[in-house]
Amino acid sequence: MAFFALSRLATLRRHLTSSDTNDKAAGGSSIGGSIKIASEVSEALSLGRPVVALESTIISHGMPYPKNLQTAKEVEAIVRENGAVPATIAILDGTPCIGLSTEELERLATLGNRAQKTARRDIAYVVASGGNGATTVSATMFFASMVNIPVFVTGGIGGVHRHGEHTMDISSDLTELGRTPVAVISAGVKSILDIPRTLEYLETQGVCVAAYKTNDFPAFFTESSGCKVPCRVESPEECARLIEANMKLKLRTGILIAVPIPKEHSASGNIIESAIQRALKEAREKNITGNAETPFLLARVNELTGGASLASNIALVKNNALFGAKVAVALAHLRQHSQKQ
């Protein structure tokens, strides 16, 4: 359609008019001197090729080194092997980066939790202070939308924390989904959270929640949370049509597409749940709250399950990357076909 042709033309014009000698020497382009886009990502966006955004907190805060670096490289490779360009997003030395080089991935992986966990609220501070920030779902969605990347892959989104009705601890991922038109491919909501209340909150935000080949909403480590979804999709092409309709209607909301963890990697629900309950109790005893809680819980659950939860986490992220790349390719084909007509 003409809308997407004009959008691509505007993106191309921005990239061409904002590049300078220093940007080219760095292997990318910038928008207004404030955002660096890797040359591979910039070219793909300009030509309407499929791009998949990837977050970076999973690298810095989600896994230990060097497993985090290995996983990040493998996830990017999966995206490429399935026809799309990966764009891992982070803030380095105060500059938001859309797409990271191998050296930048390694730097982020070795920084670990010394890189600030960066949600939308933290972006301005990290940039202004020249800091290093690993972007969460909300910040990654913000930057992806800014440069017109419609598909974003992560492990699991944040949500309403257990006992959130008393603490009001609700992830900014949910409000971001309510205002930023990016499709998020995940294995559902992290099972350390209150899944029913999270789905209720997403409904309040007007977010379309779909599940791939199931009527049950996945629970991150396991295939089902016991909660039903309002929307079921059967293929990457169907997901692409859903994303396209959302964009054409200008609903200005994100879409959450939940992909169940593969059966062969699904950890025992009872073992995981027991570990989660113990970790939650320890977090309360140690007064660990806010954005420090999720990294603590994930690490503690991994310890209590003897590494089973980390192995499952890596497997589901790779599976999401595979599916997300296929969705991005299907969406690019759909838009190209619309433009020809």
Description:
With 341 residues, the chain is of the alpha/beta class. The protein has helices at residues 2-18, 21-25, 39-47, 57-60, 67-81, 102-111, 123-128, 137-146, 164-167, 172-177, 195-204, 236-248, 269-285, 293-304, 308-340, and strands at 28-31, 35-38, 51-54, 85-92, 95-98, 116-118, 133-135, 151-153, 183-186, 208-212, 231-233, 255-258. Helix 1 runs antiparallel to helix 3 (39-47), helix 5 (67-81) packs antiparallel against helix 6 (102-111) and helix 12 (236-248) crosses helix 15. The chain is globular. The model is unreliable at 1-6 and 12-26 (pLDDT under 50). Keywords: Glycosidase, Hydrolase, Lyase, Manganese, Metal-binding. One of its GO terms (cellular component) is cytoplasm.
Question: What are the defining features of this structure?
Answer:
disordered N terminus, twelve-stranded mixed β-sheet, 50% helix, 341 residues, 14% strand, alpha/beta
What topology emerges from the helices and strands here?
Elements: H1 2-18, H2 21-25, E1 28-31, E2 35-38, H3 39-47, E3 51-54, H4 57-60, H5 67-81, E4 85-92, E5 95-98, H6 102-111, E6 116-118, H7 123-128, E7 133-135, H8 137-146, E8 151-153, H9 164-167, H10 172-177, E9 183-186, H11 195-204, E10 208-212, E11 231-233, H12 236-248, E12 255-258, H13 269-285, H14 293-304, H15 308-340
Helix pairs in contact: 1-3, 5-6, 5-15, 12-15, 13-14
